[in-house]
Write a structure and sequence with these properties.
Helix content: 40-55%
Largest sheet: 6 strands, antiparallel
Distance between the termini: 31 Å
Number of domains: 2
Number of helices: 16
Shape: elongated
């Protein structure tokens, strides 16, 4: 069944809709808990939209400020925003710009999902081929460079690169090959961050990495530690063994835990209280944002902007160039050539429910800050048969022909109509 073919009841007409604007009902936080007996408030979705609006207001880069907010422009004009819904999946807005930023609440999950698949394929191949898999954690003292995020990124990235380049050079040396044979090396790294606005040194960067070798290297732990320590000391940075950890992976659960830690879902970060530093006060990036988003201080905003400036064009997640070869080693003969390529950022709507939104209607939704409410109503009706009246109220607004109204007046008109729906939405 195509949901685009759903017929609107006769009672939900323009007259009813417009008249309802005169009877807008107030709402409160307490009334958000239920509607038609269904829990419709997603803490994750609520927090997500709070972060999107925060980013829209304070992000230092234009692409991040416009992400999931501004309709996509092309040579023929501006694309109309969409509400897209697949049965069993969360509704979302389409035809909006994206920034593809790793620290963006809208784009990070897509990026992480792709990385999780890539990581899992390579790791499974390594385990199946009985390769050596090591988990490595590198940190730089939190106090280094205090709130100079640019310098923090520089020192930890260059240190990791120095160690890995040194390791590659070492295993390719004639003496090493003579004693150990040819060894192939694959690596994966992810930068993790914890934040605490109350500290003079608010940001703690650390690298989690996988080191996979086709044969075990006996002294790899001591060699990496000595090389890492020597490099940082030359830069005037004293490091402690406490901030260094390397361990052999003995079971798949450890790999799963690693992937969850470094490439876990944004939803998990937004809703988990476990994502924090050793001091119990520092928080993961998105957890930290959630803690400041409602009432950010000047320092919070400063730290947020400076961190994003420093992280621009930095390799926060990275695989060695030969990682695809590792993946290929894990493929069965019958699987070769059967990999399905990901499509571009095109939205498949053939078997989906979707609405095409007027540009001013989208502007009104943003002005009223009801992006999540619209999606929740659609989700509840399509998936659970709830919010029927509200769904058709919204559908009527989407389908209204208001071509005779223009500009600000048109947006104001839509705002008045939407307020009626919002009032009903938050009324028990």
């Amino acid at each position: 069944m195509s949901f685009t073919s759903i017929n609107r009841p006769q009672s939900h007409n323009k007259t009813l809709l417009i008249n309802s604007c005169n009877n807008v009902q107030s709402h409160s936080e307490e009334s958000k808990e239920s509607i038609e007996g269904t829990n419709i408030v997603s803490s994750h979705r609520k927090k997500y939209w709070e972060l999107v609006r925060f980013q829209n207001k304070y992000a230092p880069r234009k692409t991040m400020r416009l992400c999931n907010r501004s309709p996509i422009s092309h040579k023929d004009g501006v694309k109309s925003p969409l509400v897209v819904k697949d049965v069993g999946k969360r509704a979302f807005y389409g035809n909006l710009m994206t920034c593809k930023g790793f620290f963006c609440p809208n784009c990070a999950e897509v990026f992480r999902a792709e990385q999780r698949v890539k990581a899992r394929k390579g790791i499974d191949s390594a385990i199946n081929n009985k390769f050596s898999v090591q988990m490595l954690t590198l940190t730089v003292p939190r106090s280094y460079a205090n709130d100079n995020f640019e310098e923090k990124f520089k020192i930890i990235n260059t240190a990791f690169r120095f160690v890995m380049n040194g390791l590659r050079t070492r295993i390719k040396g004639k003496k090493f090959i003579r004693e150990n044979g040819v060894v192939e090396l694959w690596t994966m790294k992810g930068i993790d961050v914890t934040m605490d606005s109350n500290r003079e040194d608010p940001c703690h960067l650390h690298i989690h990495s996988l080191i996979i070798t086709s044969k075990p290297i006996v002294d790899i732990e001591d060699w990496i530690w000595r090389t890492y320590k020597r490099h940082l000391e030359k830069k005037g940075v004293k490091v402690s063994r406490k901030g260094f950890d390397i361990r052999q992976v003995l079971e798949d659960k450890e790999i799963t835990d690693y992937i969850v830690k470094t490439l876990g879902t944004i939803e998990r970060e937004l809703t988990s209280t476990k994502k924090e530093g050793r001091d119990g006060k520092s928080k993961g990036w998105f957890s930290w944002l959630c803690s400041i988003v409602e009432n950010p201080s000047k320092r919070d905003i400063y730290l947020y902007r400076e961190f994003l400036k420093a992280s621009k064009n930095k390799r926060t997640q990275d695989f060695s160039r030969n990682w695809d070869r590792l993946v290929d080693l894990g493929l069965k003969i019958e699987d070769i050539g059967m990999e399905i390529e990901d499509k571009d950022d095109k939205i498949e709507i053939n078997n989906s429910f979707y609405w095409v939104l007027d540009l001013e209607l989208w502007g009104a939704i943003k002005n009223l800050k009801i992006e999540e409410e619209v999606l929740l109503i659609v989700d509840n009706f399509i998936d659970r048969g709830k919010c029927k009246e509200l769904f058709y109220e919204l559908k009527s607004i989407v389908e209204l022909n208001v071509d005779k109204v223009f500009g600000k007046e048109k947006k104001k008109f839509y705002c008045n109509l939407l307020r009626s729906v919002v009032g009903l939405f938050y009324t028990k």
